[in-house]
Amino acid sequence: MAGHDGPTLSTRTTVRYALGSLGTGGFSTLPGLVLIYYLTDTLGIAALAAGAVVTLAKVWDVVIDPVIGGLSDRALMVRGSRRGPMILGVIGLPVAFLATFSVPAGLPPLPAMVWVLIAFVLAATCFSLFQVPYIALPAELTPSYSARTHLLTWRVVVLTAAILLFGGGGPEIRGLFANPYLGYFVMALASALVLFIGTAVTMTIVPTSGMSGLLDSGHRPVPHASNPPLLEHYRSSWRALKDSQPFRALLATFVIQGLTTGLMLATAQFVARWILDDEGAVTLLFICLIGPALLVAPVWKTVAGRWGKERAFTFASALFLTANLCSIPLVWAPGYWIVAPIIVAGAAYAGMQTLPLAMLPDVIAVDARTSPDRAGVFGGVWTAGETGGMALGSTVLTVVLALTGYVESTAGVTVVQPDSAVLGIALSFSVVPAALMILSLVVLGRYRLRKEDVEHA
Questions:
Q1: DSSP state of 271
Q2: What is the pTM of this model?
Q3: For the domain that residue 243 is a member of, what is the CATH number?
Q4: Number of structural domains found in the chain
């Protein structure tokens, strides 16, 4: 059976599945890091308008993800494979991503904003066509509680490497060119190639017929299955949320933490430029955050094996909160000392990615006891929540920037930011994330699924 080796997974399957996170990491990281800055400081778009562009694209993402999840489940039911939607995403994502950062020089702010909005919405749609089925695959590749942790651990290793590659390398490529328009274009072109390679490799392990673990349990393709109405996809998503308390708790925690990391990600470029007074320092901030995560990710697998995934996830979240609290002096004492708490946050971030992603297939497996054939629905709701949380992070930043008087500019124009705007940037990188992490820990305390429940399923 392709990609399934009983309780364990082949190295080939693990590696090729993990490489799909080049797409996840790249698309989630680079726009989150530079898109707001590109809109405000190159295209001359006001902060609130720039935030609206990103938010509208992500709202669209949230709207379509449950539909894509339902279509993915139907493709599995009818054809025995989720490949169809994924292929569309693999082909369309690099093209739309490149278009997002290809606004012609000299285009006025309003048409430039419309250009970016259309291109980014298309990119978000193509990303969802790949990502939603991708998230559903682990529950089908193996029935093993431990094997899923192993699979998702290596996925997160690649994910953190991708975040480092795109978050650190993207701005460096941009900085090689005096013309910012050309710099963003070349950055996007290189990124689009990596996105295509990672997602295309993962396609090679997606079953081409009814070969998944869930189908082998007796759920065979139904060639003449009817196509459900559009609203039925949303009803299915609501039922999944209503039926599964562990899913609600896990998703809410992940969304809040996605908002937290999305806010910090979007703020990093502004911290580098206006607090550290070095636009290129964003690369250092990224290395300090993602480097430890890349090294520590396998450690969280060991911690989860000893303590259980949910306890390990709680510890990782508490460690990230500690780093946020230690960053608060940035408000009155700016300096490169900030890299120390960022390194701690990086080590915690690896666990905050590995563990909930390893817990999600367990939730799906337990749910399948009573409601089979809706792994794609879970994947769609999860992706909607994840992208929505990340988008809200950028939205919160733009609201803070607008309220504190941030001054936007076009390429080549030098401006001076008021002290209030610099304060808003510092708060967005420390105090606000700390408050959000406290809330996420309260929500995580409601997750009740344990290892024995999964093994019984």
A1: I
A2: 0.69
A3: 1.20.1250.20
A4: 1
